[in-house]
Design goal:
mainly alpha, 264 residues, single chain
C-alpha cells in the first residue's frame, strides 16, 4: 500500500472538511446578524416617544422586518454561491449600516400614513451615511475587500437613496424620486441590453456623488434649511445625472455585445 497516497487523500479530505466548516460558519454569522437586526427592529417598535406613540409605528416595523430578513437572506445566498470562508470586518460594518437602512425604510413607510419622529429619522440617517465611508476603509486596511462586499455596499447605498428620496418627495415634489430611481433605471436598461452590464472602470467620483446625494437628502429630511434644501437636492440630482451620463457614454462607446462581462 502506498502510505504517502493514503496520507495525501486523508489530508485533502481534512482540508475539504475544514473548508466546509468555515463556509458554514460564515453563513451562520450572517444568520446571527439577521437575528440581531430583527431584535433591534422589534425593540424600536416597542419603545414609545414620551410615553405616547411608538417610535416605529406598526406599519414601519413590519416593513423594516421584511427589509432586514430579505436583505440578509440575499447576503447569505451570496456567501453560499461564492463558498466564502470569511465574513470579514467590513461586511460587519455594512450589515450594521444595512440594518440602519431597514429602520429608515420602516420610518419612511410609516410616514405615508402617520406622523413620525424626524429627529429619530435623522439620527438613523447620519450614522448610515457615515458608515459608508468606514466599511470601504476597513476592507482596504484589513485586506478583506471582496466583490460580494462591494456589491452589497453598493446596493445598500442605492436603496438608502431611494428611500430618502421617497421621503423628501413628500415635501419638495415627486421630481426628487429621480435621485433614488436612477440606479434602478440603469439596472433595468441592463436587463434589455446585455452590453449595458459591461464592467465599468473604477471611478472615485461615483462615491463622491453618492455621498453628496445622501447628505443633500438628509439635510432636506431634517427640514433645518427650508428653501436651501431644494437647491441642495437639485444640485445632487444634477451631479448624479452627470455621473450616470458619463457611464452611459462610456458603455455606448465601448460596447461589445458578444463579450460583455455581465454582473451576477
Amino acid at each position: 500500500m502506498n502510505h504517502s497516497r493514503v496520507f495525501g487523500v486523508l489530508t485533502d479530505k481534512h482540508r475539504q472538511q475544514e473548508h466546509e466548516t468555515h463556509v458554514k460558519r460564515v453563513q451562520l454569522q450572517a444568520v446571527g446578524w439577521t437575528a440581531a437586526g430583527v431584535l433591534l427592529v422589534l425593540l424600536l417598535g416597542a419603545l414609545t416617544e414620551q410615553g405616547r406613540s411608538p417610535l416605529l409605528p406598526t406599519p414601519g416595523w413590519q416593513v423594516a422586518l421584511v427589509y432586514v430578513v430579505i436583505s440578509n437572506a440575499l447576503l447569505v445566498r451570496g456567501f453560499q454561491r461564492r463558498r466564502s470562508v470569511r465574513f470579514g470586518p467590513a461586511n460587519v460594518v455594512t450589515v450594521i449600516r444595512s440594518t440602519l437602512v431597514g429602520l429608515i425604510t420602516g420610518l419612511v413607510a410609516a410616514s405615508f400614513t402617520t406622523s413620525i419622529s424626524v429627529v429619530l429619522l435623522v439620527a438613523l440617517v447620519v450614522p448610515a451615511l457615515a458608515l459608508d465611508a468606514v466599511d470601504g476603509w476597513v476592507a482596504r486596511s484589513t485586506g478583506t475587500s471582496s466583490e460580494l462586499g462591494a456589491r452589497f455596499d453598493m446596493e445598500v447605498d442605492a436603496f438608502l437613496l431611494l428611500v430618502l428620496s421617497l421621503y423628501v418627495a413628500q415635501t419638495l415634489g415627486v421630481w426628487v424620486v429621480a435621485i433614488g430611481a436612477l440606479r434602478y433605471l440603469f439596472v433595468m436598461v441592463g436587463w434589455m441590453l446585455p452590453w449595458f452590464r459591461s464592467k465599468l472602470p473604477p471611478r472615485y467620483w461615483r462615491k463622491v456623488v453618492t455621498a453628496v446625494a445622501g447628505i443633500a437628502l438628509a439635510v432636506a429630511a431634517s427640514r433645518l434649511l427650508p428653501g436651501l434644501d431644494a437647491a441642495l437636492v437639485a444640485l445632487a440630482l444634477a451631479l448624479l445625472l452627470e455621473s450616470f451620463g458619463r457611464d452611459v457614454v462610456w458603455l455606448v462607446v465601448n460596447r461589445e455585445p458578444a463579450a460583455a462581462e455581465q454582473y451576477t
